[in-house]
Write a structure and sequence with these properties.
The protein is α/β, with parallel strands linked by helices. It has helices at residues 19-30, 52-60, 76-87, 98-107, 129-132, 136-149, 160-168, 192-201, 223-236, 251-261, 276-280, 297-304, 317-320, 335-347, 349-366, 369-387; strands at 4-10, 36-44, 63-68, 92-95, 114-119, 154-157, 176-178, 210-214, 241-245, 267-271, 285-288, 309-312, 328-330. It has a 7-stranded parallel beta sheet, sandwiched between helices. It has a 6-stranded parallel beta sheet with strand order 10-9-8-11-12-13, sandwiched between helices. Helix 1 links the parallel strand 1 (4-10) and strand 2. 44% of the residues are buried.
């Protein structure tokens, strides 16, 4: 049987790898190379310099093509993508956000390539603009995208919540495929030697309890509620440190808020890091305080690293964590609940060990990259079996 040529088209970030980027890299590096040939098409607004995804794809040795857009919906992109689909004889085109969905749809007229739209982020703009408190532009994009996705052959969702919302938008149930994000256990086992060096770099004293989080410093990640919780935690554990890993538009505002709360000396902003594992290695507790979230792959990474997790009950997080079995779930925007959960884990070593052991098992059984890749490959094979390879 000939190899199945699969193209992944996405809009990468310049400053860091998104969850979708990590999924693409995982598929490229771990998919069966005897059966599948993966190619990445990146939509960019300038030369292909500084995009981490492009650099990582090249390291893997996979093919990457850049489609440079001069404006948001550059009509030339349709022609360029159409040409690339023919050049590489693509059988399956997999997209990752509204822009790539839109361009893919209008580039595949009279081309046999089958289309898969993956939804890994928060979904709901088109359902209720009032409940989202988002601008009209976001509402319009989501509304258009909800119609565009209906023209795709499959829609991959990363959580049960997103699946339910798609059904509410009248997306055909037989098109929806639930594939949770996955990670590798071995990559995140704690290394005591590395953790000692990381603590030294951050000027954290040996023995200090470390509460950490990882994510973009944007409003939906809910960092302000973690800072508010830190005020109460530090009254009971004054030597504790809160390590916030990530970069984003709210960095200055969050630092200023920590000063306003009088806890700036206990808060460490590390900035962006390509190697989040080194920061996971020093954490005693991982907190994920998002207000909304598509899935939260970093939660799985923390669980794989053997860190007890506290997370908000939003998006795909309840798919990952069973409350009081593999971690603790709290309500979003609820600093008192975060405080109570953090203090509980800091004082109860047995409960921490209980969560660690259960979490590692669930990651291995349900959220490993191996399980994720197997499900993607099954979907690709089913599409080709149904419609034929090109």
């Amino acid at each position: 049987m000939d190899k199945i040529n699969i193209a992944h088209i996405t809009t990468p970030r310049r400053d860091q790898l998104s969850g979708s980027d990590r999924v693409i890299l995982s598929i490229l590096s771990k998919s069966d190379k005897k059966k599948f040939n993966h190619i990445v098409f990146c939509l960019t607004h300038r030369e292909n310099k500084g995009y981490l995804l492009i650099e990582e794809v090249k390291k893997i040795g996979a093919t990457v093509e850049t489609i440079i857009l001069k404006w948001r919906f550059d009509i030339r992109a349709f022609c360029i993508l159409r040409s690339l689909l023919k050049k590489y004889n693509i059988s399956i085109l997999q997209t990752y956000e509204y822009k790539s969905n839109f361009i893919a749809l209008f580039s595949t007229f009279f081309i046999k390539a089958k289309k898969i739209a993956r939804i890994g982020g928060w979904l709901g703009f088109g359902l209720s603009i009032k409940s989202c408190n988002l601008d009209r532009k976001a509402f319009i994009y989501e509304l258009i995208d909800s119609f565009v996705r209906k023209c795709f052959d499959r829609v991959v969702v990363v959580s049960t919540e997103i699946k339910d919302k798609l059904v509410a938008q009248r997306c055909a149930k037989d098109k929806i495929v639930l594939i949770h994000n996955g990670t590798d256990l071995d990559e995140y086992y704690q290394n005591s030697a590395d953790s000692t060096n990381v603590k030294k770099t951050l000027s954290i004293k040996s023995g200090a309890k470390i509460i950490g989080t990882i994510g973009r410093l944007t409003i939906e990640k809910g960092h302000r509620y973690l800072l508010e919780a830190a005020v109460e935690v530090l009254q009971k554990y004054p030597d504790a440190k809160f390590v916030i890993v990530g970069e984003g538009e709210l960095k200055r505002a969050l630092f200023d808020y920590s000063k306003k709360l009088g806890i700036e000396h206990s808060i460490i902003f590390t900035g962006f890091s390509e190697n989040v594992g080194k920061y996971l290695s020093i954490m005693d507790i991982f907190v994920f305080p998002s207000i909304w979230e598509g899935f939260g792959i970093v939660v799985i990474e923390a669980m794989a690293a053997g860190i007890p997790v506290i997370a908000t009950k939003v998006g795909g997080i309840p798919d990952i964590i069973e409350n009081n079995e593999t971690g603790i779930l709290v309500e979003a925007k609820n600093s008192p609940q975060l405080t109570k959960a953090i203090n509980l884990l800091l004082s109860d070593g047995e409960k921490c060990e209980f969560f660690k052991n259960n979490a590692k098992k669930i990651v291995r059984d349900k959220f490993s990259s191996k399980v994720m890749i197997e499900k993607y490959e099954e979907m690709y094979n089913n599409l080709v079996a149904t419609y034929g390879n090109i």
